[in-house]
Design goal:
It is a single chain. This protein has 217 residues and is of the alpha/beta class. It contains six helices and four strands; from the N terminus they run ααβαβαββαα. Helix 4 packs parallel to helix 5 and helix 5 packs antiparallel against helix 6. The N terminus is likely disordered.
């Protein structure tokens, strides 16, 4: 687990019926991942070739302790534009937040990027999503996709990712419009970040913040 400041317990977490006792998870988190892999070869030798990552992943916070939790799995893609209406996209995002933010904890979000050769094309993870998921009771993310906003990342929220990005080309003809657009992005993120970083976070308050954000133009 990622330290006492982020135990994975919050208002939307219920660990009463978790399959493993919290004390066992805390004990497992005292060991690094290679040690757990070696121990699994002893107690479950049939898993020697399965159940672990094989592609290179980047850890932007190597000084954080190991995390142990229950996986919340999902797939994403960015190369193909969504054909869903805005209301349906919002409904699916809220359903996703309810999925990752309820049930037994602590939780780790495991996201597979299904963009194939273009894996990492779009970064779902950054300042806002790390703050929101931390508030939802998650202790970290594992993704083969990309992450960004490392300096603004939620403190104590661990990450393993396929890449860190992005760099971006700025066309001359739109450069003058970017400061106002960047300021707009910041104003839209503010209500979400205030709720996610506040002491009284709930899913309902997150839904209200997302609605307020959508009304900022």
């Amino acid at each position: 687990m990622a330290g006492p400041q982020n135990s994975g317990e919050n208002a939307v977490t219920n660990s009463a019926n978790a399959p493993l006792p919290a004390a066992l998870l805390e004990t497992l988190a005292r060991h690094d991942t290679p040690t757990i892999c070696n121990a699994l070869e002893i107690v479950a030798p049939e898993r020697r070739l399965i159940g672990y990552t094989t592609k290179p992943l980047v850890c932007p916070f190597p000084d954080l302790p190991p995390i142990v939790g229950y996986a919340r799995t999902v797939t994403i893609r960015s190369v193909v534009a969504s054909g869903l209406a805005a209301a349906e996209q919002q409904a699916r995002r809220l359903a996703y937040y309810e999925y990752v933010g309820t049930g037994q904890g602590p939780r780790i979000t495991v996201i597979q990027d299904i963009d194939g050769a273009e894996v990492g094309y779009g970064a779902f993870w950054g300042e806002v999503q790390s703050a929101v998921h931390k508030a939802l009771g998650c202790v970290g993310v594992i993704t083969d996709g990309s992450i960004r906003d490392i300096p603004q990342w939620a403190p104590g929220f661990q990450a393993l990712a396929g890449s860190i990005g992005p760099a971006v080309v700025i066309p001359f003809d739109v450069a003058a419009k970017l400061p106002d657009a960047a300021e707009l992005c910041g104003r839209r993120e503010t209500p979400i970040l205030e709720i996610a970083r506040g002491p009284s976070f709930t899913l309902e308050k997150l839904k209200e913040a997302l609605a307020r954000s959508a009304e900022i133009h």
